[in-house]
Amino acid sequence: MPTVHDHLSNEELMIAYVCGDNTAFETLYTRNESILLRFIHRTLGTALSAQSEEVFQDVWMRIISARSSYRPPQANGALWKTWAFAIAHYACIDRLRAQNKYVDVHTNSTDQDNDPLEWIQAELGQTQRSSEDESYWRAAGGQLLKCLDKLPQEQRSVFIIHHEEDNSIEEIAAVLNVPFETVKSRLRYAMKKLRHCMQNYLGELGKPS
Amino acid sequence: MKNPQHYWQDARLKKALANAPDAQLMPSTAIRKTIIDAACQVNQIKTVKAARPTIRTVPNWLLRLNQYLFDSPSISLTAIGSLLVIGCVALLWSLNDPKEILTQGDLLQPPVAASTPVLPKETPRQTQDQLRSDNRSTPHQDQVRAPVSSVETPQPLIVDKKSDTEITSSQEAIITKPRLEDKKRPSQEITPSSNQGHTSSRSKKTVDQNRTDKSQNAIPTASKKEVPANLTQAPPKPTEQEVEPPLQQQIATLPIQSQEPMSGIQGQMQGASSDAQKQTVTQDKQKNMELNKSRESLTIDVPANTSTSKNTRMSSSKMTEISLFGQDAASSNATNPMIDHDSMSTTEGTNQSDFEASSFGATVTNDVALLDGTTEKFLPPIAHLSQWDCVEIQQRGVISALTRSQSKELPALIARMFKTTAITQQPLARFTPPKTDVILLRFFEKQRLSGTLYIDRVNWFFVPQPNLAQTVITGTLTVQDAEHLKEKLQHLSP
């Protein structure tokens, strides 16, 4: 494991790699592989989760080939994560388009038949649920992924980037190359749908234990 | 939630997302290895690509040379570059005539020839009169053509070194020696007496040399005072010995080009002054004349257009002059699209002006009325100058514009200036307008500039516009003519 460049930021690592330092790339990869794979996995959804690793590799190849086009924020560029997520986002869109899974924006078939609480109880064999329970949150996360699958891809990407990477709306707008207001709108719709989808969990979470 | 940007973030959803089943998802080791290998491979290719040009830029021999001689390659490169620059400068210096670098003050000394305008009394008039018996040009005209391109003006001392017979043998016999000595004479030896003018270009030198040679006809006459009239003596051998061997070889090959026209002229001359020649000119003198004429023709490099002229009233000096003009006109016609080439063939002139105009070898466009009441053909290289409506004269900072009717004398003045001038051409790119003591005339035709004429102390330059040939027509006046012209122009200006 490369440890020499651990103190460097993603941007510095990328510049070091562009200048010929291969170990910097190893550090960069190790630091971000999980995040990127998760983002891709969630963006692709459960239907295409099997292809997430393939897309993940494709994303890194794109990052390597486009390394010379990267500009850090000091050179009027963007954060490396923003830049990499933009590449991953477009790779996912390409894959979804290839699989005709990209467009079903307003088709919501709410999956209300599966009661998450029941599922969690059955999974854990517990009748008393704890809001802090890891299993609960794991179940909530699973449910959230299912809810994300139902979201349109644009809203899904916005939600994932916003929640997982803590990117601001401006950064999301830069990543997705869409206007600020569009990002905000997509995010609002995504939240509305997800809350509706996750209302059982959220209702439970909202109750005092 | 706290940050306005994160207003839409839901902590519960975020936590759920962080605890989702795929939160700990990691790519396989194979994918990791593949990606890192690809990244390293791309970087290695880039490094190799970047290294190649560095190796190619510096040749091995230079590296070895630097290894042995210097510590860094830049030193040897600098040294080589400096040597190249020095070589180029030396080459350019050697190509340029150092005389042209002389300051104007050095060159503009009062001319000697201007102070000797009168022919000596004891000149062998018999010979000269016979030679010029039918020539309309007065002796004064020949004297007016005293040396003006004076950096190369030969010293009359050359004549003094020679025997008397050399001087009196022929006017052309003097031509050889000065020219040869001029080539050898360093610029430091230019005396004030020889600095009589200013030559502006190399192309003009040839004509100026010839003019200088002609001017010898006037200058050495002062020394001819002491010359007895033993004209029958043959020219001494040293005259031919002074000829440079390459020149002699060239002369030997000349008859095809230059001897042929000369033979015709020579025959005319012999017909005109046969009695005098029988008494004074020997066969050796004729050979010497031929030799010198050939040299002149060699110098101007083109046979004169006067070869077809039938005018039998020309003097030998006039022949030389006209042959030069003819050459210049021919060369100018080659480049000047405004001249009608169809009429270049010379015709038998009815008078002197006609002959001169036709000897210029170009279309004669307009008749210009001279002051003496006669008409003069406008000389062809500047033929389009005859068509102008208005002229703007700038002299000593004063600008005056005159219509053609207001400046009736101007055409005659210009015609006279052209008539008494050896005309050459030079590329426009090499032309630098004179700055001091210059009279500037801008000719307009239908409110459009048709040409610009610069007249400095003794030189004039005419820049026709539109200048399709990219040439400047130049000439050198005698000092007297220049003064006369300036006086007249001053009178013209209101």
Which keywords apply here?
A: 209 residues; 0% strand; globular; B: 494 residues; alpha+beta; 7-stranded antiparallel β-sheet; two-stranded antiparallel ribbon; 20 helices; 46% helix; elongated
What report would you give on this structure?
The complex is a heterodimer of chains A (209) and B (494). With 209 residues, chain A is mostly helical. Chain A is built from ten helices and no strands. In chain A, helix 2 (22-44) crosses helix 4 (80-98), helix 5 runs antiparallel to helix 6 and helix 7 packs across helix 9. The longest helix of chain A has 23 residues, at 22-44. The radius of gyration of chain A is 19 Å and the shape is globular. Mean pLDDT of chain A is 76; it is low at 104-114. Chain B has 494 residues and is of the alpha+beta class. In chain B, 46% of the residues lie in helices and 10% in strands. In chain B, the strands form two sheets. In chain B, strands 4-3-6-7-8-9-5 form a seven-stranded antiparallel β-sheet, sandwiched between helices. In chain B, a hairpin with a 5-residue loop joins strand 1 (367-369) and strand 2. The interface between A and B is large, with 49 and 35 residues.
